[in-house]
Amino acid sequence: MNIILLGPPGAGKGTQAQRLVEKHGMRQLSTGDMLRAAVKAGTPTGLEAKAVMERGELVSDAIVSALIGDELDSMGAESGAIFDGYPRTEAQAESLDSILEARGRKLDHVIELDVNEDALVERITGRFTCASCGKGYHDTFEKPQVEGTCDKCGGHEFKRRPDDNAETVRTRMAEYRAKTAPILPVYEVRGIVSKVDGMADMDEVTAAIEAILAK
Ligand code: AP5
Ligand code: MG
Known about the structure:
The chain is an alpha/beta fold. It has helices at about 15-25, 30-40, 45-55, 60-75, 90-100, 115-125, 165-180, 185-190, 200-215; strands at about 1-5, 25-30, 80-85, 110-115, 125-130, 135-140, 160, 195. The strands form 2 sheets. Strands 2-3-1-4-8 form a 5-stranded parallel beta sheet, sandwiched between helices. Strands 6-5-7 form a 3-stranded antiparallel beta sheet. A hairpin with a 5-residue loop joins β5 (about 125-130) and β6 (about 135-140). It is globular. The relative contact order is 0.19. It binds BIS(adenosine)-5'-pentaphosphate and magnesium ion (MG). The site of BIS(adenosine)-5'-pentaphosphate (AP5) has 34 residues, from α1, α2, α3, α6 and β6. Magnesium ion binds near residues 13, 14, 30, 32 and 85.
């Protein structure tokens, strides 16, 4: 199965993708995570992406589509893919069609996380992740069970994203509205879009997504 999780910054794409990975052994393909890894490693892609990401703008279509193609090539054909944060423009949506077709895959579901933008700034500015395993947390909504210790791997170091500040979040949301939301109709005409209430409790969102995948 190949699915897209679509929604603005802080909608819960990463949170829900991690849960699907754990439950179904699918692979999460997050272009944001891939770009952050490239920035950390100081690769040419990372050097090009760093300042763009810090401003909250979109990295070039060619870069992210190449990352997705490479990642799919590194997976077994039987592994399901969860696209998290990709595609984000009409050009990327077109590239994804060709990328999937070339690999004999088809898109099964586009799941839109429907959220109230006003609540997202709080979600994003409170977010942190385990520095060792990447598990996501939130200062208010999802604290580690033992303060300072990762529930998943027992690590003690946590990190926050440099683009998770109120000002950059506004730019990221404006980018979503201008460039990403307009790709939804492309998938709506194919009849593969399902809308989920992303403001519900995390477990309820997971249950709603599971119900769609079971259809
Ligand atoms: P990316 O990393 O994709 O960031 P984003 O789209 O801005 O989305 P986020 O990761 O901020 O949000 P999320 O939906 O994953 O929310 P999460 O689950 O963490 O992209 C970063 C940058 O990289 C972009 O700005 C761009 O520069 C570049 N980039 C990436 N992909 C690109 C592409 N395709 N093209 C061009 N450029 C690209 O949840 C947020 C918080 O809320 C967490 O703390 C979580 O615990 C909490 N939470 C989640 N769900 C709930 C809930 N139901 N109730 C309460 N709290 C919740
Ligand atoms: Mg994310």
